[in-house]
Amino acid sequence: MELTGVGRRHGLRGPWILRDVGLRVPRGALLRIEGANGSGKSTLLRLLAGIDAPSTGRITGRPRTAYVPERFPAALPLTAAGYLTRLGRVHGLRRPAAARAALEWLERFGAAGHAHTPLSRLSKGTSQKVAVAQGLVGRPELLVLDEAWTGLDAASREILDRAVRERVADGGSVVFVDHDPRRLAGHCHAVHRVAEGRLSAVPAVPAASLPRVRVEAVGTAPPPGRLPGDPLAEDLGGGAVRLTVAAADSDALLRALLTARPPWHIRSVSAAADAPEEPRP
């Protein structure tokens, strides 16, 4: 997907919000958009999602897209599962597959108990879980997230981080805005900043330069599933492993190990000042 010379203004004589924007969104890319409040970030995301049309310029190669807005229209006359099933159908899933996907994402976000609750009766936090799930249920080729983490609890934010990385690993593209500068740091392929209506590239933070933590733990079973932060793992023998992960993901990693069944024993936690070592054979 590519934006060429794209501009956006409200009305024929309104001020320009964006001007001469050029942006390429490759397949399998994770792009972060930054900028001050009111700079035009949300306008850019709406253009990418096809919600708004450019006033000038052109957008080509638009893939099948899902959009999670900053504010979710929770007053729709549908249940959580009914709404997600409809969105799955919009993305081309057959009804049984759409219904299964709806329940799977509600369960993943810890909201399965609200599957048959009308959207208008959901709490703000649960509504946001449904909003995020609707962007994921159809496995879109392009996922556009506008402050989608806002309103989610810590566990759900970690789940969304993981879901974004999975979507990219599967060949999808994700473009997002978030107020937390650490959000998916080290995983972004490119970072762009909106300022004074213009879009410019800024250096992405390389994963190797992020603060990292090493966790040594002992357990009687393999580490539970896909661990937060996708840590580098070294087998130390005797059931012990050393896991190196970005510091931002270390709390989630420790929680996953301690809540495993049976739980893992944490032997040590330390800063990893040097470069991660390659896993031992």
From TrEMBL:
<dbReference type="GO" id="GO:0005524">
    <property type="term" value="F:ATP binding"/>
</dbReference>
<dbReference type="Pfam" id="PF00005">
    <property type="entry name" value="ABC_tran"/>
</dbReference>
<keyword id="KW-0813">Transport</keyword>
<dbReference type="InterPro" id="IPR003593">
    <property type="entry name" value="AAA+_ATPase"/>
</dbReference>
<dbReference type="InterPro" id="IPR027417">
    <property type="entry name" value="P-loop_NTPase"/>
</dbReference>
<keyword id="KW-0067">ATP-binding</keyword>
<dbReference type="InterPro" id="IPR051782">
    <property type="entry name" value="ABC_Transporter_VariousFunc"/>
</dbReference>
<keyword id="KW-0547">Nucleotide-binding</keyword>
<feature type="domain" description="ABC transporter">
    <location>
        <begin position="1"/>
        <end position="221"/>
    </location>
</feature>
<dbReference type="GO" id="GO:0016887">
    <property type="term" value="F:ATP hydrolysis activity"/>
</dbReference>
<protein>
    <submittedName>
        <fullName>ABC transporter</fullName>
    </submittedName>
</protein>
<dbReference type="InterPro" id="IPR003439">
    <property type="entry name" value="ABC_transporter-like_ATP-bd"/>
</dbReference>
